[in-house]
Amino acid sequence: MNNHVTVLEIDGNALEHNLNYFKQKLQTETKILAVVKAEGYGSDAVKIAKFLENRVDYFAVAYTHEGVALRKAEIKTPILVLHPLTQNLQAIVDYRLEPNLYSFKIFEAFLKLADEIPLMNYPIHLKFNTGLNRLGFWHTDIPQILSTLKETTHVKVHSLFSHLAASEDAEEQEFTLHQIHNFAYISQQFYKYLDYKPMLHVLNTSGILNFPEAQFDMVRIGIGLYGFGNDEQETSQLKNTHNLKSIISQIHFIEPGETVGYNRAFIAKTRTKTATIPIGHADGLSRKIGNKKCFVLINNQKAPIIGNVCMDMIMVDITKINCDEGDEVIIFNSQEMIKQISNSAETIPYETLTAISHRVKKMLK
Ligand SMILES: *Cc1c(COP(=O)(O)O)cnc(C)c1O
């Protein structure tokens, strides 16, 4: 049980709004895969998946145990495991998860298992490297993959996919188009030599926004579902899904010359009223946002974080704010606040969201 007062509220209406925003950008036949890896970008993958299960065609997680958790919560939708790892292939089958097979090592390990059990037409996905150079077969591997596939009825390729390296970046448009072109070429080889047609997909959130012509059969939406597009204009069309809240635990009045927090990093110049909030770097707040780099909201007013972010707490300046112990504190409730925290922490919203730790209570509203 988690009864922490520091809560991440997931806004179901916002999630639905964002999904519909992307749906309206897609051709009617284009399928939607919702990416719920890393606990649904720092929230709660089970809650998000339950909310979305009748609205999307597929889920994706990064690792096998993330998929197992969804199946244990009785999610029935197909789940693509992007990075299953050979050690976990038995669990993949046990929980009817669909592995991305990205190299001969894992492909052959899976075929061996499929042979032993034996499986029949088990859904697999093949990923091709078209320039990210992270996971994936090379196009030169195609003949060997095809000849292996011809000899088995234990697996069936449900999809072929690739991942773009810089789909958000207008300056890399040429590179991205090259990736898309190569992916189309790879797909053609399979369509020519297989007697069935696997689904094709290459676009993530920013790919959908920048390369609408490359939707193929399905798109993979992650950060967009959680409220972030490529730029401010797109982001303003989306709604914030992650609202991080806490309360004031204690209020102090400190005199000029007194200090606040570790290393005495804040020194009061005048009489200062401070509030202590039960959220710290162990909850996912970067230590880089202390010392007035960022603020929280109390009764709609900005309270700057003073001193260093502690493991379990922050202190904020509430000298000018009328408030009491127990009052609500908003750490963030808008994309602008998440952006500002990310900028101060020298990172991007992806990291700010996924940093929200297990200790924070998660609720879908
Ligand atoms: C994380 C991930 C996505 C989602 O990307 P967003 O930019 O969050 O939409 C899509 N595809 C793959 C392979 C991923 O790893």
Instruction: Let me know the largest β-sheet.
Output: 9 strands, mixed
Q: Detail the poorly predicted runs.
A: none
Number of strands: 19
**Number of distinct helices:** 12
CATH architecture type of the largest domain: Alpha-Beta Barrel
**CATH evolutionary superfamily of the largest domain:** Alanine racemase
How many domains make up the coordinates?
2
Which structural category do the helix and sheet elements fall into? Answer: alpha/beta
List the bound ligands: pyridoxal-5'-phosphate
Approximately what portion of the residues adopt beta-strand conformation? 15-25%
Query: What is the CATH topology classification name of the largest domain?
Result: TIM Barrel
Enzyme class: isomerase
Function: Catalyzes the interconversion of L-alanine and D-alanine. May also act on other amino acids.
Domain Alanine racemase C-terminal: 241-365
Protein name: Alanine racemase
